[in-house]
Amino acid sequence: MNLDTLYSELTLKTKAKLALVVLDGLGDLATIAQGEVTPLEAANTPNLDRLVARGVAQGRMTPVAPGITPGSGPGHLALFGYDPLEFQVGRGVIEALGLGIELKAGDVAARANFCTLDSKGLVTDRRAGRIETEVCEELCGLLARKIRKLGDTEVIIKPGKGHRFVVVFRGKGLEGPLTDADPHREGEPISKAEPVNPKSTKAKKTAKLVADFYKAALPVLAKKQPANGFLMRGIAHQPDIPSFEERYRLKPACIAVYPMYKGLAQLVGMTKLEGTHTIDEQFERYLDEYDNYDFFFIHFKATDMYGEDGNFEAKKRAIEEFDAALPILLKKRPDVIAITGDHSTPCALKAHSWHPIPVLIHSDYSGSDKLDRFTETGANLGSLGIFDAKYLVRFMQANARMFDKFGA
Amino acid sequence: MNLDTLYSELTLKTKAKLALVVLDGLGDLATIAQGEVTPLEAANTPNLDRLVARGVAQGRMTPVAPGITPGSGPGHLALFGYDPLEFQVGRGVIEALGLGIELKAGDVAARANFCTLDSKGLVTDRRAGRIETEVCEELCGLLARKIRKLGDTEVIIKPGKGHRFVVVFRGKGLEGPLTDADPHREGEPISKAEPVNPKSTKAKKTAKLVADFYKAALPVLAKKQPANGFLMRGIAHQPDIPSFEERYRLKPACIAVYPMYKGLAQLVGMTKLEGTHTIDEQFERYLDEYDNYDFFFIHFKATDMYGEDGNFEAKKRAIEEFDAALPILLKKRPDVIAITGDHSTPCALKAHSWHPIPVLIHSDYSGSDKLDRFTETGANLGSLGIFDAKYLVRFMQANARMFDKFGA
Q1: Are residues B102 and B221 in the same domain?
Q2: What confidence tens digit (pLDDT) does each residue in A54-113 have?
Q3: Do A408 and B88 count as a contact with CB atoms less than 8 A apart?
Q4: How many CA atoms lie within 13 A of B94 on its CB side?
Q5: Looking at A220, A237, A254, which one is the last position of a domain?
Q6: What's the pTM value of the predicted model, to 2 decimals?
Q7: Contact: A368, B36; criterion CB under 8 Å
Q8: Are strands B57-62 and B336-340 parallel, antiparallel or unpaired?
Q9: Residues of A in contact with B376 (CB under 8 A)
Q10: Do A169 and A275 share a domain, yes or no?
Q11: Which residues numbered 227-256 in A keep a CB inside 8 Å of some CB on B?
Q12: What is the ipTM, given to two decimal places?
C-alpha cells in the first residue's frame, strides 16, 4: 500500500493549530576553527531554552537524500511534506516566484539572461558583460512594451538583478519542460528549445512559442550592444501539486517576507498573509490570524543570508533576534510547534549544504528528550532520530492527533 | 534485488535459540507533568540492569512509518518481520482472532454488532441500545442454532462484549475484502456488502453469501427489539502470509496469554503453547520447551493495559513484575534475546501511539552500548539507532550468526 494513501485514509479533521517555523539555512557546523560551536549553540536563546524545558522532541532531518544539497525549492517542498524527487519545480518557475510573479496553473516560465551575439549570431559573451540592473530593467521594459502577446498567449517579462530576467508565457495548452535555449558555451549560436518529452503536443506548442518569441524579440535588441541577444533556461510549467489543504485537511497560511517563499507556499495552495517585514510582525500576524487558519508556515530569512556570507556572529545574532520574538508566538500557543530550517547553510561553506537540519517538535504529546537546549549536537541525541524532511508534517499531524489508528 | 530474497538466500540453518519478549505498549513519554521520566525509567529493574551490564545493543523502532499509530495487528506483523503495509490483516480477522476463533486459510471473517431497525428497515440505533453481553450471547446462540450452513459454507457465530459479535464463513472459493454492510450513520438502511475489487469472482461469491446470511438471520431477530438487526464491517479473509518457519528457517512457538496475540502468531504459522497465565508461567514454559523450538515469542500484556488506563504507577509496577520474572528466562539463556514492545502506549495519551519503541538485543555479538539501563532516553543513544520494526527479526538472525556473508 502506498504510504501517502495510508496517511490520507487515516487523517482526521481536528481543531488543532499547527505552526511550522522555518529559520532558513539554520543548520551549521561546529568547526574547530569556530571554537567547535555552531551559531545556534553560541547564541543566547532563553526563550527557546524555556520551550525545551516544557518538553520537546528533537532530531535531525535529511533535506532530500544523503549528501544532497537542496535549493530553496526542494528544501521547502520537503518541509511541506512533498517528496522533492517526485515533485520537481523547474528553475524558471522558482526564478519567477523569486521575482514575485504570481504564477497561475499552466503558466510556463523561463529564467533568461542577456548575452552578446556577433554578426553571425554566435554567442560571444553569455552574460552580456554583466550589464547593470538598470540597463536590464530598461531592456526588459522595451521588450515588454513591444511583445505583449504571441498569438493568444500572454507574455510577461520581468527584470531581475544584473543581466538576469524572467519570461512567463500565459496561455492555453502549454507545457514544459523544454531543453535550454542556451549553448552553455561561447562561440555557438543560441540553441533551439525542444520538448524534453517529444510526444507532448503541448510542449511542442510551447517550443514553437519560444521560437516565435526569439523571432519577435531579437530584432528589438539588434542594436543594444552588448545586450543584443538573450538565453533562456529551465523552461518549465508550474507543476501540478496536490493542494496542502486537501492533502493534510489543514487550512494553511504563509507568513513570509521574501517573494520566493511566498511563491513556494502558493504553489501548494497556501494563503499568503502579506505586509510583514520583521519576525516580530510575522508572529503578531500569526496572533491576528490564529482563528482563520489551521497551519501556519512562518519563514525567517536572515539565518540563511548570514550563513551565505560566512558571517558567524551575524548568524548568531539573527538567531537571538528570532529567540527574542518567540514569546509573541507563544501568546497563543499552537497545539503543535515545529522549529527547524529548510537546509543547513554553514558559515564554513558560505553556501547551502547537505548536513542534517536540527528540528524540534513541541506539543502535549511530544514528550521530553531531557536535553537542556535546542542545538545541532543535542538534536543528534533526540527521540526523532534522523529522518527525511518530508515526514515532518506527518509527525506534526501525529502530535496534533490527526491520525486514526492503523489496523485493529 | 529484493531485500527479502537476499535475506532468504543468505540464511543459514543453525542451532541458535532466539527469544523475542514483547512488553505490549512498552514505549512511553517523559512528560514534564510526570517528572520527566517514563514508567520504564521510573521502574526498579535490577535484572534488566544486570542484562544491560552483560552487554546489550539498544535502539528505537518505528512501528510502521513516521507518525503512524499501529493497532496490535500491524504492530505484531512488523515484529514478526512482515511489512505491515504489504501484509494487511482485515479488522474482521483481528476481531475473530481476539475472540479465540482458530481461523483456517480461506476463512472470511467480519466484525458484527447488533443494531435497531424501524419498520421500514432503517437503522435507528447502530448499537442496539448497547445491549448487555448476556443478551448478545443469547442472540448469537439463537442465530448459531438456526444458521449452521449456507449452501456448502459453514457459518460460525461467536459473541463478543456488549453488542459485538463475529461471523466467520468457512467454505471454498471465498475472498475479501468487502465493503461494510453498515451505512455508518442512522436513518439509512443496512448497506449491501460489495467486493472492494469488483473483478474478483471469489469476492462476488462472498458478497452473495453475506446477502444470504442477512436473508436467513433478519427473520430470526425480527421480534428481538432493540436488537432486531445487525451490521457487518471489516469483512476480510485470512491473508496469505508466508510462514515464519520457511521465511526465517526457525521453528517458532508463541507463549501468550491473550487470544489476540496467539491468533496473530498463528497467522504466521507459530505453534501456540497454551495454558500459561502469568509471566512467570510463560518463562517456565519457555524452559520446558527450550529443546523443541528455535524461536520463542513471549507476550506480556499488562504494560499496554495500564498505558491505556493512563496509570503510570501500575505500568511501572507491571514492568517491575516482568523484571522480577526475567531470571527464569535466563536460566537457559537463549543465544539471542530481544526485549521491546509492539508500539508505545504512553500514559499521557491513554492510547497506542506512533512514538518509537525502545528495544534491546543481547547476544555474544551484540556488543555493549555502555548504557547503564534500558530506557527510552538511553535507547536514543544506542548503536541500533532508529529503525523500522520489521527489521528486528533480521537483527536477531544476524546476532544468531544465521546470515552468510553477502558477496565476496
Answers
A1: yes
A2: 999 999 999 999 999 999 999 999 999 999 999 989 889 998 988 889 898 889 999 999
A3: no
A4: 17
A5: A237
A6: 0.91
A7: yes
A8: unpaired
A9: 383
A10: no
A11: none
A12: 0.90
